[in-house]
Amino acid sequence: MNKGKYDIVVLGAGISGIGAAVLAKTKNFSVFVSDNGTISDDDKAVLAQYTIPWEEGHHSTPLILEAQEVIKSPGIPQKAPIIQQLHEQGIPVISEIEFAKRYTHAKMICITGSNGKTTTTSLIYYTLKNAGLNVGLAGNIGQSFALQVATCNFDYYVIELSSFQLDNMYDFKADIAILLNITPDHLDRYNYQFQQYIDAKFRIIQNQTENDIFIYWNDDPVITAELDKRNIHAQQFPFALEHKKGEKAYLQDNQLIMNTPSNTFAIPREEIALQGLHNLYNSMAAGLAASSVDVKKETIRDSFRNFQGVPHRLEYVASVRGIRFINDSKATNVNSCWYALQSMDTPVVLILGGTDKGNDYSEIEALVQEKAHTLIFLGVDNSKLHTFFDKMGKPMIDVRSMEEAVQTAYKGANKGDTVLLSPCCASFDLFKNYEDRGDQFKTVVRNL
């Protein structure tokens, strides 16, 4: 491999890293890609197409420490030794999102929150596409933002941002920033300090001016407590269930009301395709964002009536002998599972487990007690789940594969029950990712 000093080193050769490397090369930077794991054949082909050198299975530290700038995969923690060495050397470490924004003047609609990001991002993108806007979908969903900047020319981007992506964004600015909610998540990445995670989420409003818009859930106690601590320059568009504090979106007479300076309209709640209280909030945020870029109310209504949701989030799979199976594999934290349980109107067999991220299961204790008659723990180490839930005295079964989980749930369910995969945990102990976990669930269910 050719050794030398590179303008840019990209750490991590996933979707984000490959996109960043391609953009860097198209902007005439010398660029090198380093991945501590394995690079897929497809990604190697892309790197070869752009003549970008790479390494896998290790990091060549001396070479990396000669870079002018490093673009880091969001999956690499700040405490990783190579990141610590870069900081000690004073070498800038940024995210793919930060890098790509330098090369586009498109309007940025950015969404973060502990839960609901993917659904809200997808609904906004769907609505803007229906309006005929030239729009890209990026971030934690869709194609790499950097790759789209390198190969497309969009006027708008709808970008889902995780806290990990926000951590390494400095000059980036969202024209429209959406903060859906904040509940404890990924605390293992934030030294088990909730405030550090909160601060990461609030980075979505950094650099905003009075010409920008900040959309947020006004009933979230964490968000509202933080508002008083921060000097917010953007126009504020709060949403909530009731119209009591200047909300721009709210529920009134069972209609979703939107009231922005450029658009006022209503849609009956029962006409919204996405059902459930959590999806009502997601729809409020999406409607405010669409209204803010002057999408016509008729288009917003049509989009809300026809949008079908996203895979792995409360996704109906099948009914087998009167037992309904729901795939909520995207529920990688406790609050997501709370929303799933809250939406259940039948007795539940609940499949939990995976890689614990510092979870506090007390948030779902009452709902599990009320709605779930059997718990199935799918994970390598289920000790923390047993420590918390054993006191309930419900049937609890440990399994080590999705096949075993579904078969066990099927045997333990009664006609009229729902088998709900809503794990509360990350998937990396037994699966490649939450998509793999959800796909395996669907395959096994359909083979029953």
TrEMBL record:
Query: Boundaries of each Mur ligase central domain copy?
Result: 111-289
In this chain the Mur ligase C-terminal domain maps to 312-424
- Residues recorded as binding ATP, renumbered to this chain, are 113-119
Q: Name one Pfam family in it.
A: MurD-like_N
Give the pathway annotation: Cell wall biogenesis; peptidoglycan biosynthesis
InterPro entries with a match to the protein in the record: Mur-like_cat_sf, Mur_ligase_C, Mur_ligase_C_dom_sf, Mur_ligase_cen, MurD
NCBIfam families recorded for this chain? Answer: murD
Q: What does this protein do?
A: Cell wall formation. Catalyzes the addition of glutamate to the nucleotide precursor UDP-N-acetylmuramoyl-L-alanine (UMA).
Q: State what protein this is by name.
A: UDP-N-acetylmuramoylalanine--D-glutamate ligase
Taxonomic path? Bacteria, Pseudomonadati, Bacteroidota, Bacteroidia, Bacteroidales
